[in-house]
Amino acid sequence: MLLAIEQGNTNTLFAVHDGTDWIAQWRTATESTRTADEYAVWLSQLLSMWDIKMAALNGCIISSVVPQSIFNLKNLSRRYLNVEPLVIGDNVDLGIPVRITKPSEAGADRLVNAIGAHLKYDGDLIVIDSGTATTFDVIAADGAFEGGVIAPGINLSLQALHEAAAMLPRIAIQKPDRVIGKDTVSNMQSGVFWGYVSLIEGMVARMKAEWAKPMTVIGTGGVASLFEGATDSIDHFDADLTIRGLLEIWRRNAHLKTT
């Protein structure tokens, strides 16, 4: 069985694949100081609830945008799974061209998404990943990562608004009934929600105009589902984009696995 770990700045996903299907997925808050032993205790408890033995995990692939956590995640695999993990950006061949000025600067999550998107969708693509940051990535028809856009994520913007303005409360993100709010909370909800819809629509339109060829737009990430039904700029919402990419990378590099 394969343990796939996808670590973002806010949350970390652990998923188990049995060779045919994803059979379990769990999320935990990203904490860069969490040790391999702490991860192991947490993971073993969850595995036991699904009647999965830790010893059954004989492969591990890691994608992380938190450099200070990678050491502990590697040690989790080495100590408790007895396997050398495949790490995106470290010892893994992605099998795709990275057509940007400095390929080493491309985030692991963005490259994994590129592979996951190209596997399922034809033609030129835009992948919108809504997480701590909102990224807009262009994947060419041949699967190449062509670059993109990075903007603050919706939660980050909401947090900054609350922390920088003493009179503005911390609020939950939700789609307001109307654009013009009648109180402070509805004003903030409208500004954040419809502001991000406008960001998506405007950025997609500009990217398509610059690319000058038809493009399919895929939304993914922790808060992507918020925008489903709110805009026609996103063609597909795909929650499994990242783990699909991780599984494909594992399969392309399985010969590197050591026990």
What does the radius of gyration come to? 19 Å
Q: Give the overall shape, derived from the CA principal axes.
A: globular
User: Order of strands side by side in the largest beta sheet?
Assistant: 3-2-1-4-5
CATH architect. name of the largest domain: 2-Layer Sandwich
| CATH class annotation of the largest domain | Alpha Beta
Query: How many structural units, i.e. domains?
Result: 2
Low-confidence stretches: none
CATH homologous superfamily heading of the largest domain:
ATPase, nucleotide binding domain
Structural class: alpha/beta
Q: What is the CATH third-level topology name of the largest domain?
A: Nucleotidyltransferase, domain 5
Helical run tally:
6
User: Biggest sheet: strands, sense, closure?
Assistant: 5 strands, mixed
The percentage of residues in β strands lies in 15-25%
| Gap between N and C termini | 13 Å
- DSSP summary, beta strand count: 10
* Arithmetic mean pLDDT: 91
Write the layout of secondary structure elements.
Blueprint (H helix, E strand, L loop, with lengths): L1 E6 L3 E7 L4 E8 L6 H14 L9 E6 L2 H15 L4 E2 L20 H13 L3 E7 L2 E7 L5 E8 L1 H11 L19 H28 L3 E6 L15 E2 L3 H13 L6
Helix pairs in contact: 1-2, 3-6
How would you characterize the overall build of this protein?
By secondary structure, this protein is of the alpha/beta class. It has two domains: 2-87, Nucleotidyltransferase, domain 5 (2-Layer Sandwich), CATH 3.30.420.40; 103-242, ATPase, nucleotide binding domain (Nucleotidyltransferase, domain 5). It has six helices and ten strands; from the N terminus they run E-E-E-H-E-H-E-H-E-E-E-H-H-E-E-H. The strands form two sheets. Strands 3-2-1-4-5 form a five-stranded mixed beta sheet, with helices on both faces. A five-stranded mixed beta sheet has the order 8-7-6-9-10, with helices on both faces. A hairpin with a 5-residue loop joins strand 7 (133-139) and strand 8. Helix 1 (36-49) crosses helix 2 (67-81) and helix 3 packs across helix 6 (241-253). The active site is at 109 (proton acceptor). It is found in: Cytoplasm. Homodimer.
